[in-house]
């Protein structure tokens, strides 16, 4: 039974065009989330029903068949009982019937039409493992081989098509969700994806999550900490898989609502997700990895995907968590994000780690193919910087492009800085900052703040650059009033980090040269600032000395040990 509201939700999503983000995206997102919650609740209930009892699934299917058979021989009413395998109408409580019999009865009934239908379709050229699995199962159960207690029945063909999944596929087929499944697109590590066709001929992608135990072992790290699973989640693999499929549907809806290119989800039943097929003439779009794009196309693709990553973070409040050339499809000149089942909310404790991994994978791919890319840190900052307005994204990227071209190949220092960044802890809120006071001191004295990774994500960078530019303005006003030369050069107002760079260079000069030699510095800096900087440099020096001493203490041999050694040496001599 299709979940009430599914069609409406899907209609709503499919109306969202791949246009640039509009202002009402947030509203749409909210509406979607609400709708999704309602729909989820309804489906939850239904899913619970189905998962708790395969019998109800079977009954549904039987009901469907019964209603189909109405015109053929006998009448059916909800209260009437179905003929059992011996024929004739019997009034019995289905719960009292032995399990094996019930299944066999069901199989006998369902076998009649669907098997013929499947066989018929296979004659027109269908041959794949799904069909084989379904056909095999139906045949076996029809001749009474299948028992519910049989391990083989519970096991999964290609680790995806287990008995329950087959039932779902039956149901979808009978309901007309698709006309046939005409091929396997992929047998991935967590799901198999099949090509299906709707009755009107439109192609569909059917993703069937594998229910095997081993594959989902590492899934927990994506679930733990996601508020959507705050009430806990069942570690039973099948339930996990169902949650996973549901998560993918929900995440795809969010992406769609925000205008990110991705498959539109159409229908979800337990571990089976029916969605838009990305591809043409039965051929799935190639993965970015296999697309063999020209350098120009790759450049376009890079910009497209990093904007999508930013939208995903800023609008959908999600981090993909497995974004790479393997989970991006190239179709009609654009990149489509797929496989979002593991995508996590911002709130997830590891969201930033996952985001950083995504940045590394995306950057590595494009860099390997000759695209001049941002550093990981720059890309990360671009994605998380909430202060960049939507209409300023293009100019931000143009500016970044100029910067990349100006610096040429990534320097060794940048590479080292990136690898340090990749391994560092990123505080997400100021509560997570370890030495807040020390950091504040560094920030207020305009020292090098490059290693303060949280400046952008917390919005501090922007706030500080505003404060600084207002300070500069007043200084400029003062200097023009006294008709002095400008105190701070124009390009210093660009960003806090640039300032920090300049400042730290000056500090280094300050340390290496004598104080009198800093005449060039005094030309470009306010004396008050210089004084503060020198004070800070001195403090820094003290800190360094202290640290060195601390290090030396670590390797220091204790007095008592020394004494003992001396004594021993003496004793050896006297012997
Ligand atoms: N909507 C779709 N339209 C066309 N092809 C699709 C669609 N969804 C998935 N595919 C194809 O199926 C493959 C696997 O899909 P997906 O990544 O979602 O599953 P997976 O189990 O994570 O697989 P993998 O382990 O290979 O990543 C994709 O690489 C892609 O080629
Ligand atoms: Mg994948």
TrEMBL record:
<feature type="region of interest" description="Disordered">
    <location>
        <begin position="476"/>
        <end position="575"/>
    </location>
</feature>
<feature type="compositionally biased region" description="Basic and acidic residues">
    <location>
        <begin position="19"/>
        <end position="40"/>
    </location>
</feature>
<dbReference type="GO" id="GO:0046872">
    <property type="term" value="F:metal ion binding"/>
</dbReference>
<keyword id="KW-0547">Nucleotide-binding</keyword>
<dbReference type="GO" id="GO:0005524">
    <property type="term" value="F:ATP binding"/>
</dbReference>
<feature type="region of interest" description="Disordered">
    <location>
        <begin position="14"/>
        <end position="104"/>
    </location>
</feature>
<feature type="active site" description="4-aspartylphosphate intermediate">
    <location>
        <position position="339"/>
    </location>
</feature>
<dbReference type="GO" id="GO:0005737">
    <property type="term" value="C:cytoplasm"/>
</dbReference>
<feature type="domain" description="RIO kinase">
    <location>
        <begin position="150"/>
        <end position="385"/>
    </location>
</feature>
<dbReference type="GO" id="GO:0016887">
    <property type="term" value="F:ATP hydrolysis activity"/>
</dbReference>
<dbReference type="InterPro" id="IPR017407">
    <property type="entry name" value="Ser/Thr_kinase_Rio1"/>
</dbReference>
<feature type="binding site">
    <location>
        <position position="207"/>
    </location>
    <ligand>
        <name>ATP</name>
    </ligand>
</feature>
<dbReference type="GO" id="GO:0004674">
    <property type="term" value="F:protein serine/threonine kinase activity"/>
</dbReference>
<feature type="binding site">
    <location>
        <position position="339"/>
    </location>
    <ligand>
        <name>Mg(2+)</name>
    </ligand>
</feature>
<dbReference type="GO" id="GO:0042254">
    <property type="term" value="P:ribosome biogenesis"/>
</dbReference>
<feature type="active site" description="Proton acceptor">
    <location>
        <position position="322"/>
    </location>
</feature>
<feature type="compositionally biased region" description="Basic and acidic residues">
    <location>
        <begin position="533"/>
        <end position="551"/>
    </location>
</feature>
<dbReference type="InterPro" id="IPR018935">
    <property type="entry name" value="RIO_kinase_CS"/>
</dbReference>
<keyword id="KW-0808">Transferase</keyword>
<feature type="compositionally biased region" description="Polar residues">
    <location>
        <begin position="93"/>
        <end position="104"/>
    </location>
</feature>
<keyword id="KW-0963">Cytoplasm</keyword>
<dbReference type="InterPro" id="IPR011009">
    <property type="entry name" value="Kinase-like_dom_sf"/>
</dbReference>
<dbReference type="InterPro" id="IPR018934">
    <property type="entry name" value="RIO_dom"/>
</dbReference>
<keyword id="KW-0067">ATP-binding</keyword>
<protein>
    <recommendedName>
        <fullName>Serine/threonine-protein kinase RIO1</fullName>
        <ecNumber>2.7.11.1</ecNumber>
    </recommendedName>
</protein>
<feature type="compositionally biased region" description="Basic residues">
    <location>
        <begin position="83"/>
        <end position="92"/>
    </location>
</feature>
<feature type="compositionally biased region" description="Acidic residues">
    <location>
        <begin position="41"/>
        <end position="50"/>
    </location>
</feature>
<feature type="compositionally biased region" description="Basic residues">
    <location>
        <begin position="552"/>
        <end position="575"/>
    </location>
</feature>
<feature type="binding site">
    <location>
        <position position="327"/>
    </location>
    <ligand>
        <name>Mg(2+)</name>
    </ligand>
</feature>
<dbReference type="GO" id="GO:0106310">
    <property type="term" value="F:protein serine kinase activity"/>
</dbReference>
<keyword id="KW-0460">Magnesium</keyword>
<dbReference type="InterPro" id="IPR051272">
    <property type="entry name" value="RIO-type_Ser/Thr_kinase"/>
</dbReference>
<keyword id="KW-0378">Hydrolase</keyword>
<keyword id="KW-0690">Ribosome biogenesis</keyword>
<dbReference type="InterPro" id="IPR000687">
    <property type="entry name" value="RIO_kinase"/>
</dbReference>
<feature type="binding site">
    <location>
        <position position="278"/>
    </location>
    <ligand>
        <name>ATP</name>
    </ligand>
</feature>
<feature type="compositionally biased region" description="Acidic residues">
    <location>
        <begin position="496"/>
        <end position="524"/>
    </location>
</feature>
<keyword id="KW-0479">Metal-binding</keyword>
<keyword id="KW-0723">Serine/threonine-protein kinase</keyword>
<dbReference type="Pfam" id="PF01163">
    <property type="entry name" value="RIO1"/>
</dbReference>
<feature type="compositionally biased region" description="Low complexity">
    <location>
        <begin position="51"/>
        <end position="64"/>
    </location>
</feature>
<comment type="similarity">
    <text>Belongs to the protein kinase superfamily. RIO-type Ser/Thr kinase family.</text>
</comment>
């Amino acid at each position: 039974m299709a979940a009430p509201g599914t069609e409406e939700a899907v209609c709503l999503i499919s109306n969202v065009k791949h246009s640039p983000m509009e202002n009402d995206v947030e509203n749409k997102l909210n509406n979607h989330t609400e709708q999704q919650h309602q729909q989820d609740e309804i489906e939850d209930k239904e899913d619970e029903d189905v998962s708790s009892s395969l019998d109800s699934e079977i009954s549904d299917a039987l009901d469907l068949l019964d209603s189909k058979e109405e015109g053929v021989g006998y009448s059916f009413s909800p209260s009437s009982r179905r003929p059992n395998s011996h024929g004739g109408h019997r009034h019995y409580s289905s719960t009292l019937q032995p399990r094996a019999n019930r299944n066999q009865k069901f199989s006998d009934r369902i076998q009649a039409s669907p098997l013929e239908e499947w066989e018929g379709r296979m004659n027109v050229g269908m041959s794949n493992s799904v069909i084989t699995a379904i056909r095999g199962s139906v045949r076996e159960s029809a001749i009474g081989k299948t028992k519910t207690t049989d391990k083989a029945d519970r096991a999964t063909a290609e680790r995806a098509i287990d008995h329950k999944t087959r039932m779902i596929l039956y149901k979808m087929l009978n309901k007309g969700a698709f006309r046939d499944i005409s091929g396997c697109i992929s047998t991935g590590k967590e799901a198999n994806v099949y090509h299906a066709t709707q009755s009107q001929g439109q192609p569909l992608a059917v993703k069937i999550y594998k229910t095997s135990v081993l594959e989902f072992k590492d899934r927990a790290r994506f679930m733990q900490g996601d508020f959507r699973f705050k009430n806990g989640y069942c570690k039973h693999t099948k339930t996990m898989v169902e949650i996973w499929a549901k998560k993918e549907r929900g995440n795809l809806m969010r992406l769609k609502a925000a205008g990110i290119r991705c498959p539109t989800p159409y229908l979800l039943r337990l571990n089976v997700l029916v969605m838009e097929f990305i591809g043409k003439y039965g051929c799935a779009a190639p993965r970015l990895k296999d697309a063999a794009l020209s350098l120009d196309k790759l450049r376009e693709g890079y910009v497209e995907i990093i904007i999508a990553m930013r939208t995903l973070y800023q609008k959908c409040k999600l981090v993909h968590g497995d974004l790479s050339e393997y989970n991006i499809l190239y179709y009609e000149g654009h990149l489509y994000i797929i496989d979002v089942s593991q995508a996590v909310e911002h709130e997830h404790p590891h969201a930033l780690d996952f985001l950083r991994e995504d940045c590394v994978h995306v950057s590595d791919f494009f860099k390997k193919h000759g695209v001049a890319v941002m550093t990981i840190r720059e890309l990360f900052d671009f994605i998380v910087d909430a202060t960049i307005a939507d209409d300023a994204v293009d100019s931000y990227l143009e500016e970044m492009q100029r910067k990349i071209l100006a610096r040429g190949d990534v320097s060794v220092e940048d590479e080292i800085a990136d690898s340090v960044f990749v391994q560092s802890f990123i505080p997400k809120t100021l509560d997570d900052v370890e030495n807040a006071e020390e950091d504040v001191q560094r920030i207020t004295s305009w020292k090098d703040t490059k290693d303060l990774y949280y400046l952008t994500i917390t919005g501090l960078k922007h706030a500080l650059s505003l404060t600084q530019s207002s300070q500069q303005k007043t200084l400029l006003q003062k200097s023009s009033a006294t008709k002095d030369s400008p105190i701070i050069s124009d390009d210093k107002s660009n960003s806090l980090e640039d300032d920090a760079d300049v400042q730290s260079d000056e500090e280094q000069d300050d340390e290496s040269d004598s104080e009198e030699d800093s005449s060039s510095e005094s030309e470009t800096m306010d004396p008050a600032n210089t004084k503060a900087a020198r004070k800070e440099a001195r403090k820094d020096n003290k800190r360094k000395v202290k640290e060195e001493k601390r290090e030396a203490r670590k390797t220091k041999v204790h007095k008592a040990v020394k004494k003992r050694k001396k004594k021993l040496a003496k004793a050896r001599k006297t012997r």
